[in-house]
Amino acid sequence: MPIIEAKGLRKRYGSFEALKGIDFEVQEGKVVALVGPNGAGKTTTLKILSGFLRPTEGKVSIMGKDPWSHPELKKDVAYILDRPNFPPHVKVKDFLREAALMVGEAPDVGEEYLKALGLQEYAQSSFSKLSAGNMQKFAIAVALLRRPKLVVADEPSSNLDPGARAQLYDLIIKLRKENGTTFFISSHVLTEMEKVADEVIIMAEGQIKAQAPLGQLASSLSGSSFRITTDKPELLAEALKGQVVEGKVVIGEQSASLSTIDEAAKRVGARIISVERVGSSLDEIFKKLVGEE
Q1: Which end of the chain has the least Cβ crowding within 10 Å, N or C?
Q2: pTM higher than the cut 0.90
Q3: Is residue 268 one of the residues assigned to a domain?
Q4: Tens-place pLDDT, residues 64-109
C-alpha cells in the first residue's frame, strides 16, 4: 500500500486553478522529489498533504487514511515548511528539549540531529542569533524528533549553503536506510535531487509532466545521440540522414545503431575515427518537460 496516494487533486483559488486533477503515489521507504518551477503547484500539493488546505476536488490518503479525519496521523508525519518561525529570545537547546518532551522522547534526543546538521555550536544561542540557513536546519531537527514514518518537506534546502545541503542529504539517506523513513520533498532543482531521490515527480502549471525512478527518467527522456568523427562527414551524414555539426556527424540514437553506422560507413567508403554517445543532462530534461526551452 502506498504511504501517500493522491487521486484527481484539484485546487482552485477563484478562477485560478493551481492543481489540475493530479494523481500520484509515494511508496513506503522511498525518497521522492516533487520538482517544478516556481508556480508549478508544489507548495499547494504539500499543503494539502499536510492538512493546511483542502482540495477543491479529489482525494488524498496518508497511510491509507484521510488526513483531515485522522488527526492521530500527525504523530507519524513530520512537516517541514519553507519559512520556519521560532520564538526569537528562546535558546535553541531549551526549545529542543521541550519539543522532545512534548512528543514523548528523551530530552537529549535532539542532540544527535544538531550534530548531524552541524548545529552543536549554536545550542546555547537564541533564535534571534541564527541565520536563515541555520533556522531551516533547526526546523529539520525539530521535525525529526518524533522519529516520523513520513517526512513532507517544502524546499528544505532553500536557505542552505552547499556544505549544509550535503549534511541534509547525508541525514536523509541515513534515516531512510536505518529507519525506513519515507521522504516527500519539493524542490525547483532537479539536479540537486539526483543525489538523494529514488523517484521524481515533475510538475508544471498544476499538472504532473512525468513520474519515474530517476534513472528511468534520464534514460527514457534523455534524447541521446551519436556524434561520429569520420574522414567523410558529409557523405556519412547523407547516408544516415543525420547532420554535420562542427565537423562531426550527429544522429539521434533512435534513428541509428552502431551496426547501422558501420554499414553506412562501408557503403560510402568512410573511415570511422570515433563514435561518441551523448545524452541530455538532467537539467535539459527538466527544461524540456516544463517547457522552459
Answers
A1: C
A2: no
A3: yes
A4: 998 888 888 888 999 987 778 889 999 998 998 898 888 888 888 8
